[in-house]
Design goal:
401 residues, two-stranded antiparallel sheet, alpha/beta, single chain
Length: 401
């Protein structure tokens, strides 16, 4: 059989092949770019001020134009909370999504999520954990326990006891139903905490003794008890107190993990964010003592986002700082959380556009300074709070890109 002689490929054919290969290659983005999620640029709505869904749709259109791509909506109703204006209120307390496990004030999640998705907005539900007034009313035996430093007696507190199995089961049921609704994520409300004198129920004490090998005695935990501003406070803590605080933090994180696991069984794509107080970053020991909160410990659990409540005016007021010093401490906090978390895409900065004490709008010049500082953590997510009245959307638009 005669062999076919090699023929020389014309130069123009080679050039064409190289050109088309380059075009195809350029059109396929790198895997990292494909997998990287977009930043969450949010408005947190604690109270829907619109009277009907037509008005709410216009609000969403306005927010979309300002660069907002995510809505954080309060989906629970406790005593003292303002009912959302467009809600057809059926219960004074409860939740705003379909469930058989709690009173439904009104199912707002279904229509609100439809509107949000229609306009390309994600919906995160801001959901309570331990603060469930309706459940405490129905089953007072699920209440947690605190310790009075003055009379050295335990007493009931108006929140669920996270150590009681029925309370944990109840929250898991609620979170599964919430995750089954048409939402993109859940943000744990800032009540997933235990104060420095909370967590003394019988179940907590029994479990603590099983885990640590010694009995929990409240009187052994506190030092220098004195009266200040009409109430008793501790000026110091024992070694056992710190062991107890770390243990409480671990129990709260395990509870959060359980709720996330249950929710993801019905909605594998759902994302979770945990609210963190500013003390957790700039005063970690105090955060552990006062709140049983520890950011570094939380990094070992399956949270998608760490939402730092970077409320600069609150920080300044509570620490008695001047404006200049307050900004310096704020900037230090922003840099520190960036180093602790590492991945900017997992950080969610929440900033206030109203003064919590006066209720007045914060001047745009002041907000501009705050936003400039937060923007130094490139790629971090943002959320302004609250969306109420007329927030400075023109300023926000400059940073929501």
């Amino acid at each position: 059989m005669q062999r076919i002689k090699n023929r020389k490929v014309p130069k123009w054919v080679i050039l064409c092949m190289l050109f088309f290969s380059a075009v195809v290659f350029m059109r396929i983005p790198p895997a990292a770019a494909q997998d990287k999620p977009s930043r969450l640029l949010a408005a947190q709505i604690m109270w829907i001020q619109d009277s009907n869904y037509k008005e709410l749709e216009q609000t969403f259109i306005q927010l979309k134009q300002a660069g907002v791509n995510t809505i954080i909506l309060r989906v629970f109703q406790n005593i003292g909370d303002r009912p959302h204006k467009l809600a057809q209120v059926k219960s004074p307390t409860g939740v705003y999504f379909n469930t058989k496990h709690a009173p439904v004030v009104d199912d707002l999640v279904t229509p609100v999520s439809e509107l949000a998705h229609k306009h390309g907005l994600k919906l995160f539900a801001l959901m309570t954990t331990l603060h469930c007034d309706w459940k405490i009313t129905q089953e007072p035996e699920l209440q947690g326990n605190g310790y009075d430093l003055g009379n050295k007696m335990t007493h009931k507190i108006s929140r669920l006891d996270p150590f009681k199995r029925l309370a944990r089961y109840y929250l898991a049921d609620l979170y599964r139903d919430l995750a089954a609704s048409n939402i993109d994520g859940i943000m744990f409300q800032d009540d997933l905490v235990l104060r420095n004198t909370e967590g003394f129920g019988q179940k907590a004490q029994t479990t603590f003794q099983q885990d640590n090998g010694y009995k929990l005695v409240p009187a052994d935990l506190y030092k220098g008890i004195s009266k200040r501003d009409g109430k008793y406070v501790a000026t110091g803590y024992s070694k056992k107190f710190w062991q107890w605080s770390k243990w409480k933090n671990k129990q709260l994180l395990k509870l959060a993990q359980n709720l996330m696991t249950n929710a993801r069984r019905v909605n594998p794509e759902i994302k979770f964010a945990v609210n963190l107080y500013y003390e957790t970053v700039i005063e970690p020991d105090n955060a552990l003592a006062w709140l049983s909160q520890d950011l570094k410990a939380a990094l070992n659990y399956d949270f998608d986002y760490y939402a730092l409540m970077a409320y600069h005016r609150q920080l300044k007021r509570e620490r008695g700082l001047t404006q200049e010093h307050g900004l310096a401490v704020f900037a230090e906090m922003i840099q520190k959380v960036g180093k602790i978390v590492g991945d900017p895409g997992k950080i969610w900065f929440k900033f206030q556009v109203k003064d919590w004490k006066s209720g007045q709008d914060i001047p745009t010049s002041e907000l501009d300074q705050i936003l400039q500082i937060m923007s130094k953590i490139e790629g971090a997510n943002l959320a302004y709070a609250p969306h109420e009245g007329n927030p400075p959307l023109e300023l926000i638009k400059n940073y929501y890109k």
